[in-house]
Amino acid sequence: MIGRIERRLTLAAGALCLGGIALFVCLAAAALLAFDEPGSANDAVLFDDYVWRVARFTLLQASLSTVLSIFFAIPVARALARQVAFPGRVWIIRLMALPLGLPALVAALGLIGIWGRQGVLNTALVAIGLDQPVSIYGLSGILIAHVFFNMPLAARLMLGGLERIPGEYWLVGANLGMRPVSIFRFIEWPVIRGLLPGIAGLIFMLCATSFTLVLTLGGGPAASTIEVAIYQALRFDFDPPRAIALGFLQISVTAALLIAIRLLIPASDEGHGGGRMVRRFDGRDGFGRAGDGLVIALAVLFLALPLGSVVSSGLRSDLVRLANDPMVQRALLTSVVIALVSGLLCVFSAALMIRARQAALSPRRPLAVHRGLAAGISASASLVLLVPPVVLGAGWFLLLRPLGDVARFAPLLVILINTLMALPFVYRVLEPAMATHTARTAKLAMSLGLGGWHRLRLIDWPGLRRPLLMALSFACALSLGDLGAVALFGSQDMVTLPWLLYSRMAGYRSTDAAGLALFLGLVCLVLTIAGTPRAGADHQRRKDVTA
User: How far is it, in rounded angstroms, from Cα 139 to Cα 225?
Assistant: First the structure.
């Protein structure tokens, strides 16, 4: 009886979360569809030259960013896979994970410090008598920033695939005396080729929907993506018809990308061996070690220099004055509150939906309505990506405009939009952990008659504490560094740290911007550390649970 009641409540909670997501997204889309103002020719706007120019630039920069990220990631992944004893290899791989959790504004400021007009690179070029050929603004700056974020992601995914190659492959290659070109052609390239569609699709999606980096480094209307154009149409020009046309164009592009990613990812076709320990025999000569070392060193410099620039510039600013500035304090408090509330709401919703999906599919022959609920929950984790934050914000801006000042609803809208944007990532972090935990503990909980609060306290929380904290820290970091929703609804009454940082950058107050970037980076680092339990504490907790 307890299990039946708990299952019904779980299904109802999951359906409520799914319905809330659908309602929030559909109301925004309905506001865009229903908008009709005298003299607004939506069809004419949709086929306007400016709209298609923005669309072409969006696809161009995303394509170039994807190609460059993959092109540079392949040698980095191969070098790290070959040199397993490279000094500091573990820390290098961890360094490559850092850009994924770094706020885009912080990274942009670091890249300006290296590649900007007064940056380290151009200063060095001037010192040796050369002109300044590198520009961080416009298409070149966007490409540099996207490669900074996505090259490490692609390299880590490729490295995982290369490390799963069976040890027998390397032994056969050594016995046949394969040269490096043959090893790449017959052993490494088939694995990389199988990973490329998924990696390229993911990077293309991230670059096509990029907002903060393009807004900061675009340099003007000639280098605007669809999301930035939507923001400009509403924030500066107040041209809802153009924003609507761009919004539907953005939805169409992201929908096509999601479909292409799903169709192009091939079935896993990895080689199978006899379980032999993986031991590579290539890259051991002096030339191979030197080449791989050079590739790894260049990748480390490319990633570490902007981070070092952020720290160095931030320490040179007047941190004490910034820390005592009431505007900074209020922005920091607002950012932390929004991040914590949206993070908790995201993790809670994701956990409820995952548990509801498990409950819906738990019977051997689930009802059709339960199968539909499970399918809807699975789809919602990806379909949310169809509507980027700026498009959602545009819809709700139009929906709430008749009620008066939209800024009154800004905190709630920013929290809800940030919650939805982090949901796909949090869902993918929690789903495998909760599935494994349920498979291990379901029979135990049933035999002990544990349910509800007692099961959560005695079984679920000890077993899921680590993935839940990791998901929470990830969601909070995403919300803390987000500028998409705040860019539309930010005002003097609601200023977040990213918005204040962007305002100081736009006002050429670079010293203050450097200090704020350091503050923002440190807060994200604290959130990341807080979400990763210490190994010793985690081991002691497992011992206590077992006892």
Answer: 11
Helical residues (DSSP H) of 83-118, grouped into ranges: 89-97, 104-115
* Complete DSSP assignment for 487-528: HHH-BTTB--HHHHHHHHHHTT-HHHHHHHHHHHHHHHHHHH
Residue with tokens 């300006």: 112
- 251 burial (CB, 10 Å; 0-12 / 13-18 / 19+) is middle
CB 230 within 8 A of CB 394: yes
Is 72:435 a contact under the CB 8 Å cutoff? no
Q: What are phi and psi of 210, to 5 degrees?
A: -65, 135
3-state secondary structure of 366: coil
Q: What is the 3-state secondary structure (H, E, C) of 128-144?
A: CCCCCCCCCCCHHHHHH
Nearest to 247 by CA among 414, 392, 117, 48: 392
Residues near 476 by beta carbon (within 8 Å), at least 6 away in sequence: 339, 340, 342, 343, 527, 531
- Under a CB-based contact definition with an 8 Å cutoff, are residues 1 and 342 in contact? no
Residues above pLDDT 90, as percent of the chain: 8
For 47-88, the three-class secondary structure string (H helix, E strand, C coil) is CCHHHHHHHHHHHHHHHHHHHHHHHHHHHHHHHHHHCCCCCC
* pTM of the shown model: 0.75
**Could you tell me which residues are beta bridge partners of residue 494?**
491
- Entry field: residues in the chain: 547
Q: pLDDT digits over 378-400, tens only?
A: 777 666 667 777 778 878 888 88
Q: Where are the alpha helices (H) located in 325-409, listed in sequence order? A: 326-360, 368-383, 389-400
Residue 457 is classified by DSSP as I
Buried b vs exposed e over 501-527: b needs ≥16 C-beta within 10 Å?
bbbbbeeeebebbbbbbbbbbebbeeb
Distance of alpha carbon 4 from alpha carbon 15, whole angstroms: 17
CA distance linking residue 231 with residue 233, whole number of Å: 6
Using the structure block, give the residue that is written with the tokens 């300044």: 132
78-127: pLDDT as tens digits: 888 888 778 888 888 878 877 766 778 888 888 888 888 777 887 887 77
Distance between CA atoms of residues 445 and 19, nearest Å:
30
Measure the CA–CA gap between 22 and 372, rounded to whole angstroms.
Answer: 14
